[in-house]
Amino acid sequence: MSQSVQYRVTGMDCASCAAKIEKAVRSAGVNSPRISTASQILTLDVVPSDERLAAVELAVSDVGYHLDRLRPESSESSEKSDEVKPHLTARYRRALWIVIFLNVGYGAIEMIGGFLAGSQALKADALDFVGDGLITLLGVLAIGWSLLWRARSALIQGLFLGALGFGVLGNTIWRVFAQQPVVAELMGMLALVALAVNVGAALVLIPHRAGDANVRAVWLFSRNDAIGNAAVVVAAVLVALTGTSWPDLIVAFAIAALFLQSSWVIVRDARRDISEVRS
Fold first, then answer.
1. Looking at the structure, do residues 62 and 97 belong to the same domain, yes or no?
2. Where does this protein have coiled-coil stretches (predicted)?
3. Are 218 and 261 in a shared domain?
């Protein structure tokens, strides 16, 4: 019977994070890693005594994430706690709650601002904030949960985020045929504030991420979000210069498509996790 080793991943927030971790694992000489964005579990098809595991843990740490090995458990106990010793210290947990508040709180503000400004790009960017916040929230709350319950929660979250994404996408398509004026000034101002919020979240996390590589990972993650914020700012400028809403709609389509792709990854991973636990 084949054996495997599982790790609880701390710091993974999106599908791109999972890709980075998978690449790091392969660089340590372990092929075919399975990482779930939904449950934040890394599974390796190796024996627990495999000498490459130390290299895996170091490689993943070097790209900015932390691994806690899960204790093996029988199928009868699979709905109980994974008995992992959480990496989250009290101060780090408080920092994550601040980040959750910043993301979800500003996501709600930006969504309202999107309606007031008539900007679909702001609404799509708001979904990105809410999605990041909810993923981090699940990571904080589900530390002691079993794989099955984490997967179930992630599935609900992924479906909810997907529904929101399709709502914004559908509304954007409707706006193509029923174009309405966009308040470029309000749109640009909210996008600039969004950029500041992303930088603020990074500053909150950096003191709790040891090592240059970990700090760099926070900045890279924030940079990726900031690209979306910058795209909305550019769209606002183009709306003001051209007097049309097309720049806003184009950016909205791009951000919504990326958001839906992330939601699909969460749902896919959650369904796979549920299937594996029940098999």
1. no
2. none
3. yes
Q: Taking the model in full, what pTM does it have?
A: 0.72
Q: Which pLDDT score, from 0 to 100, does residue 84 have? A: 45
Alpha-helix residue ranges (DSSP H) falling in the chain: 15-27, 52-62, 90-117, 120-141, 147-177, 184-205, 212-242, 246-278
Q: Is the pLDDT of residue 122 over 70?
A: yes
Is residue 58, in this structure, part of any structural domain at all?
yes
Report yes or no: 22 and 75 within 8 Å, Cβ to Cβ.
no
Number of domains in the chain: 2
15: left (phi over 0), alpha (psi -120 to 50) or beta: alpha
Look at residue 186 and tell me whether its pLDDT is greater than 90.
Answer: yes
- Distance between CA atoms of residues 87 and 273, nearest Å: 22
Same domain, residue pair 100 and 70: no
Task: Examine the domain organization and report whether 69 and 94 are in the same domain.
Answer: no
124 contacts 168 by C-beta, under 8 angstroms = yes
Residue range 64-118, pLDDT digits in tens? 777 888 876 543 344 444 444 455 577 878 888 898 899 999 999 999 999 999 9
